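Attaching the record inline, Q. Sequence:
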Amino acid sequence: MSKEYYKILGVSKEASKEEIKKAYKRLAKKYHPDINKEPDAEAKFKEINEAVSVLADDNKRQRYDQFGTTDFGAGQGFGGAGFSDFMRGFDFGSFDFDNIFDMFFGGGRRRRSRASQGADLQYDLEISLEEAAFGVEKKIPLNKLDICKDCAGQGGDLETCTGCGGHGFVRKTARTPFGMFQTQTACPKCRGSGSSLKKKCSKCDGEGRIRVKKTITVTIPPGVDSGNRLRVRGEGIAGENGGGTGDLFVVIYVRPDNVFKRDGDDLYLEVPISFTQAALGDEIEVPTLEGRAKLRIPAGTASHTLFKMKGKGIVDLEGYGRGDQMVRVEIQVPTKLNKKQKTLIKEMEKLEKEKPSKSFLNKIFG
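Structure, as predicted:
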């Protein structure tokens, strides 16, 4: 009676070879006698191997699906005592079932060493608030691995590898308890690249990269702020084996300013004014990023009043207009008065109908 191989592996009749491979790997790890000490583990393991020997072979699977038979000739099955003894020789705690499956049914996988992408670099750049507001050009020193210009990153003069004929892999035939199997592996001479150095570049000694010190100019756009990153393509580390070059990321840090405080695209500053300027009003000059500007203080201005100077802030980095400058005035009370000043202030005091503190208390207590 024919065995139900699909059921044994737990796959459908439409299962792909990759699905069969995964099922085999999972079940073989579970039931191998060196791992599973249950009494029926070895029999189950043989059954799994017998099933996969049929379903992983296209010709045998076709005959099995068509005729439902397992009689493919003595010694051609994947199970049996010979296979079990052979598999006992492996350390299944670390053995790669993918490799054993590929060796028996896939013919090995081609592994070529590939060019690797170069790493990115980061440079922390400190600038002033004014430079952040209007933009600036900065020179940045770099010390990095760059592509060797003499050999264009190839390491020298290349020729087709004689070990593999330029294919990057070599085939090997091995005798196993199941017959002769052919595998292909990366060519050890060219490491899978298909070419080898005929003559090394004298400048980079075949590396394809050299360490260089260089200075580049970076344009910082108006409106940047701390934490912004500028990307300079192709100024990172050159990749190996002719791989692409990484990028340079310039991280911006804006130094705190002695006059202005920044909040997004707006600027804030505090300006002192006298008691008479606040009481009578005045036109004062205040600093801006572009120089001096006039600000009108209306009569009766209270201390800590905030005035807006529209469009005197920082340009938006994304191009959405410009911020404002917010000026907070603080009334300075004189600490030293001459005789005339004291007399004038006392005259003002006599004209006061009620002191502010008394008026405040009256509002609370009635």
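The chain has four domains: 5-106, 121-154+205-254, 157-200, 261-341. The chain is about 25% helix and 30% strand.

More tomorrow.
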